[in-house]
């Protein structure tokens, strides 16, 4: 009993002593953030997809990038960390170290850099920048234009984003290349050529730090300056506009002039030398329904012009009734007609339902096909008519007709010339297609098919 009383008194004393003590006070603790963001110096690199500054001062080259960033003066500074494409490439413990050259890069690539500043409390700030290294690919599409018997103009497409200028050199025969000039444009006029001689030209893009690959072109100096030939003319579907297309027969023109009606002094349009299609949209002063219009084209350069092309005529129809009427008498597939498959359809004078020409399926063999298609645009109901002829293995090799890629009819064997006619409705456009296809064995007849006299008319 005495022992129990003593134990109770000890416990009571211990509890009393715990009750008198206060709990440990907790003070709020805030991690310090670096006082400045380590910004990359974009003034010596560039930004917003324009890195001309960095290309021309050498900070951005095909295999290296020199980066600089803002110095951090924070007393809690611990280090900079530089990352490329999310991989650490260097750590700098010296706050004065604010420049680094990354020299393990590849040309024509984009690299994402991050500069991170850490303080002694592990807090950080980051700046991110994506930098494209330039390509060293040589100029491409090197072409030429004869200006006269003694002048030729070279022109090309630059592929070296950091190019400041271009060196143009020439050699004749077995001679070494001789530098002709250094130019900042993507063209050069050689005024010392001799007609009837071969010359090899070399074009190199460069800046103060790097040089591109070399591009060379051989030229036989012979001026060709002949009239263009208009190959097609058509009224565009659903409008009164007229599209003309021509074949270029010169190597010394700088542009083409298009003329309409009897005014052969003032062209209605001038287009560059690499354009051989023009659309006349002048529906205010011309191109009236029911009127006939005549077109000419000629090639010109700075000192001369060719004769006019042979004229072509077209009568403007009511756009509500505009469709397709094609007999292939021009000798070429019209603009807007597309061939595909193992061989292309082509215009021929071997057979025709009207006139002297038709269009024939490409020459194919077993398990191959040759397709031809065109498209009319605009919702409505159309009448489609065309003449067809097949000479093939009956019941095995077929000419198949489709609208919007749905088969409508097919023919095989020896058909002679026949006419197909059908009515079709569309809510937006109508693809009209023919496909000549062969099975895996045997040939018969001419082993081909022909189409002629295609008429597509909007009737509602």
Written account of the structure:
This protein is mostly beta strands and 460 residues long. It folds into four domains: 42-132, Immunoglobulin-like (Sandwich); 140-220, Immunoglobulin-like, CATH 2.60.40.10; 229-319, Immunoglobulins (Immunoglobulin-like), CATH 2.60.40.10; 338-458, Jelly Rolls (Sandwich), CATH 2.60.120.200. It is 5% helix and 44% strand. It has two helices and 31 strands. It has helices at residues 2-19, 52-57; strands at residues 65-68, 77-84, 87-92, 99-102, 110-119, 124-132, 140-148, 151-157, 165-171, 178-183, 187-190, 198-206, 215-220, 229-235, 242-247, 255-260, 269-272, 277-280, 292-300, 312-315, 324-326, 338-341, 346-348, 358-360, 369-377, 380-391, 398-403, 406-411, 418-426, 429-437, 448-458. The strands form eight sheets. Strands 21, 23, 24, 26, 29 and 31 form a six-stranded antiparallel β-sheet that branches. The protein has a five-stranded antiparallel β-sheet with strand order 22-25-30-27-28, with no helix packed on it. Strands 3-2-5-6 form a four-stranded antiparallel β-sheet, with no helix packed on it. The longest helix is centred in the N-terminal third of the chain and has 18 residues, at 2-19. The relative contact order is 0.08. Residues 1-31 have low confidence and may be disordered.
């Amino acid at each position: 009993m005495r022992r129990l009383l003593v134990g109770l008194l000890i416990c009571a004393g211990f509890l009393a002593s715990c009750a008198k003590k206060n709990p440990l006070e907790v003070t709020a603790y805030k991690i310090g953030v670096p006082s400045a963001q380590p910004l990359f110096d974009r003034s010596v690199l560039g930004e917003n997809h324009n890195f001309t500054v960095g290309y021309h001062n050498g900070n951005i080259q095909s295999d290296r990038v020199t980066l600089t960033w803002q110095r951090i003066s924070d007393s809690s500074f611990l280090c900079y960390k530089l990352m490329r494409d999310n991989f650490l490439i260097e750590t700098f413990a010296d706050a004065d170290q604010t420049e680094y050259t990354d020299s393990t890069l590849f040309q024509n690539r984009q690299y994402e850099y991050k500069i991170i500043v850490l303080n002694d409390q592990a807090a950080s700030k980051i700046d991110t920048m994506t930098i494209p290294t330039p390509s060293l690919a040589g100029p491409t599409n090197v072409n030429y234009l004869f200006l006269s018997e003694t002048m030729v103009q070279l022109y090309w497409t630059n592929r070296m984003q950091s190019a400041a200028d271009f060196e143009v050199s020439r050699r004749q025969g077995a001679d070494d290349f001789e530098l002709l000039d250094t130019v900042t444009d993507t063209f050069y006029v050689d005024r010392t050529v001799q007609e009837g001689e071969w010359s090899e030209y070399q074009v190199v893009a460069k800046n103060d730090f790097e040089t591109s690959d070399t591009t060379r072109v051989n030229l036989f100096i012979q001026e060709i300056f002949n009239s263009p030939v208009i190959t097609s003319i058509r009224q565009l579907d659903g409008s009164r506009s007229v599209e003309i297309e021509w074949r270029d027969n010169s190597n010394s023109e700088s542009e083409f002039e298009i003329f309409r009606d009897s005014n052969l002094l003032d062209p209605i349009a001038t287009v560059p030398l690499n354009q051989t299609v023009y659309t006349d949209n002048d529906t205010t002063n011309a191109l009236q329904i029911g009127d006939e219009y005549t077109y000419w084209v000629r090639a010109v350069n700075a000192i001369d012009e060719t004769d006019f092309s042979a004229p072509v005529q077209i009568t403007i129809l009511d756009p509500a009734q505009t469709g397709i009427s094609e007999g292939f008498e021009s000798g070429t597939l019209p603009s807007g007609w597309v061939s595909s498959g193992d061989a292309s359809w082509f215009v021929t004078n071997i057979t025709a339902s009207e006139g002297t020409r038709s269009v024939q399926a490409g020459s194919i063999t077993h398990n191959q096909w040759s397709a031809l298609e065109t498209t009319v645009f605009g919702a409505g109901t159309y009448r489609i008519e065309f003449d067809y002829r097949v000479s093939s293995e009956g019941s095995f090799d077929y000419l198949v007709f489709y609208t919007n890629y749905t088969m409508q009819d097919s023919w095989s064997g020896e058909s002679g010339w026949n006419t197909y006619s059908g009515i079709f409705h569309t809510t937006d456009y109508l693809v009209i297609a023919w496909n000549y296809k062969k099975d895996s064995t045997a040939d018969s007849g001419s082993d081909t098919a022909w189409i002629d006299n295609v008429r597509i008319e909007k009737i509602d």
